[in-house]
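ok trying again, last paste got cut off:
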Amino acid sequence: MKIEFANPFAVEGRWFKGNLHTHSTNSDGTLSPRELIRRYRDSGYDFLAITDHNKLTEVDDPGDEILLIPGEEINVGKSEVGTDFHLVLLGIKEHISDRSSPQTVIDRAKAQGGEVILCHPYWSQLSINDMLSIEGYIGVEVFNSTCHFSVGKGLSQIHWDDLLVRGKQVWGFAVDDAHHHTSDHRPTDLCNAWISVKSSELTLDSIMNAIRSGYFYSSNGPEILDIRIEEEVIYVETSPVRHITFISVDGRGERWTPIGCETITQAQHRIRNGERFIRIECEDLNGRWAWSNPIFIR
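nice, full thing came through this time. structure:
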């Protein structure tokens, strides 16, 4: 049995918190780029990607307290049911104008040294055939705040698992997709979700390399404090949660739920034959989640 895991808890560095999907007044957001920077910085975020629709937003002198990752969101092509593919491009150097196909956009972004995330597949109504029709993206949005709060379609674990069970090595990202559209019956989509990245330093190259390598976990609430693998047993420690689940193929995997108390902070799982991947997710008492990246078993 060969176990492959980009374990952020096993590498040197510091933890940095960031959001990779945000919209400003340069597209359909309601806050200016500088106001977005201020809000996220004041909420403890270390890095931010302003990803306006089909436009690369640049900010002169954003300050030293937050790292800006250049990016944009491009909608392109058509799914099996006629919806657009939405792609977040990160670490690109210039706007990508060629939108002839989703694959073309991905290829152009990677040619610039960037990376691509497949956005909100549940909201976009993407099928597994849609997601398999393109390649080169590093992950999917497992959670999207604005899709969750606005129409209840922000959780895309099933789409992620559909790719993993077919052998695709893709990471899971929790993002805000913040537009700051508020009303009297839903909260703001600002500063709700994030990835916690283990990186040697807060620079564009270091953060992008850590993201590319999978050295992060995603959350909109709980903390994952440690993951380690010893003699084919996975051990996980978290902040207090109401369950910890080891997700795998078909009926394999395992869930830990507290008995006689409200929360737990530890769980373990012995890897079994046939578990081609295992990812860890946990949910707290407020219905908020955290997700590890997958552990692959070859």
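cool. DSSP finds six helices and 19 strands in the chain. The chain has a mean pLDDT of 97.
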